[in-house]
Amino acid sequence: MALIRFVAMPTEEARAFQRGEPDAYGRPPERSVCTSEGFPCRHCLRHVRMGAPMLTLAYRPFPDLQPYAETGPIFLCADECERASESDVMPDIYRATPDWLLRGYGHDDRIVYGTGAVTPKQHICTRAHELLQRSDIAYLHMRSARNNCYQLRIERV
């Protein structure tokens, strides 16, 4: 069975947004103060602390514009935070939600049809292993099953 790793947003991207550089829509990230729990930072893979500054921005986790390069809202800590370690264990922040959308992407960064499925949290690792054994799949996205928001990338080790 192929080994997997859960991968947070690259630090270089997070730092650019934290400096106010434009998001996927060419706009500066929106700054606010976190007023409730539940805003997951895509870099440290922790919830932004209550009362802490946070960013909301349009994120496109693909190298180039193309029809399958989905863009959507994400949250980040406004202050520099440490990037989550890559691991084969699903980050704790995602364990409270009952299910997630897993979707495979090819080496051309396009959706591999038939791979997207809402997956119960306890089956995420098994499903990721299965999908990443296929040669036509380069990586996976884990997304919100309800809103399709990008959470993280899952890769082969």
Automatic annotation (TrEMBL):
Q: Name one Pfam family in it.
A: DUF1203
**Source organism:** Neoaquamicrobium microcysteis
| Name this protein carries in UniProt | DUF1203 domain-containing protein
